[in-house]
Design a protein that fits this description.
single chain, Alpha-Beta Plaits, Oxidized Rhodanese, domain 1, 2 domains, five-stranded mixed sheet, four-stranded parallel sheet, 7 helices, 29% helix
């Protein structure tokens, strides 16, 4: 039996037809024997799905037929058995819960830094490097010199940032997360608060570990994959 394809993807994009999208995606997934979770909100889509390769590809291509998702990218992995018991296509207030109204990564977001350039940035002494993941993830691995906010949930990050970051001092801030979605939301929050020089790791930790040679890596420990 061939291994199942697992695809993880997200995109911040303005969506106003949520109920229609919910029906279309659910129907396509069920038709192709694809399970998983799909979150839809006015700010975009966030999903991990799994199933036979052909079925998952069919779903992804169907989503891409919508011009708003034409450039959708995803991360692939494989599983010997179905990691999801059912399909859930849910409508939410946010695709990743920060809990601060008006934060829109499609309007204002930090500067993307490619994995190949990340080491140089976070090695600069005046750069404040922040791990935006939860504490069960940070305790098993993080970047050298990174600050751990000690989060139980992502929604705790704004209050921590408000205490630690003074926009008036114009700090240089670099943020990272597992796959990139939290960084887009958190850098948007800081930019909106008036911090001008905010960076985040493009593609997240997963892309960094994939592209940066181990002997050059500044990552210390393991990476908890399921955010």
């Amino acid at each position: 039996m061939d291994p199942l394809l697992v695809a993880a993807f997200y995109k911040f994009v303005q969506l106003n037809d949520l109920a229609s999208l919910q029906d279309q995606i659910a129907s396509c997934c069920l038709k192709n024997n694809v399970f998983g979770i799909v979150l839809l909100a006015h700010e975009g889509i966030n999903s991990t799905i799994a199933g036979p390769r052909e079925g998952v590809v069919n779903v992804l291509e169907r989503i891409r037929q919508d011009s708003r998702f034409a450039d959708l990218e995803w991360k692939e992995s494989f599983a010997n058995k179905q990691p999801f018991r059912k399909l859930r296509v849910r409508l939410k207030k946010e695709i990743v819960t920060l809990g601060v109204p008006g934060v829109d990564p499609t309007e204002l977001v930090g500067t993307y830094v490619k994995p190949a350039d990340w080491n140089a940035l976070i090695s600069e002494p005046d750069v404040f490097v922040i791990d935006t993941r939860n504490n069960y993830e940070t305790e098993i691995g993080t970047f050298k010199g990174a600050v751990d906010p000690g989060l139980d949930s992502f929604s705790q990050l704004p209050s921590w940032l408000e205490k630690k970051i003074d926009a008036g001092e114009q700090p240089r801030v670099a943020m990272f997360c597992t796959g990139g979605i939290r960084c887009e939301k958190s850098t948007a929050f800081l930019k909106q608060a008036g911090v001008k020089e905010v960076y985040h790791l493009q593609g997240g930790i997963l892309k960094y570990l994939e592209e940066v040679p181990e002997d050059e890596s500044l990552w210390e420990g393991e990476c908890f994959v399921f955010d």
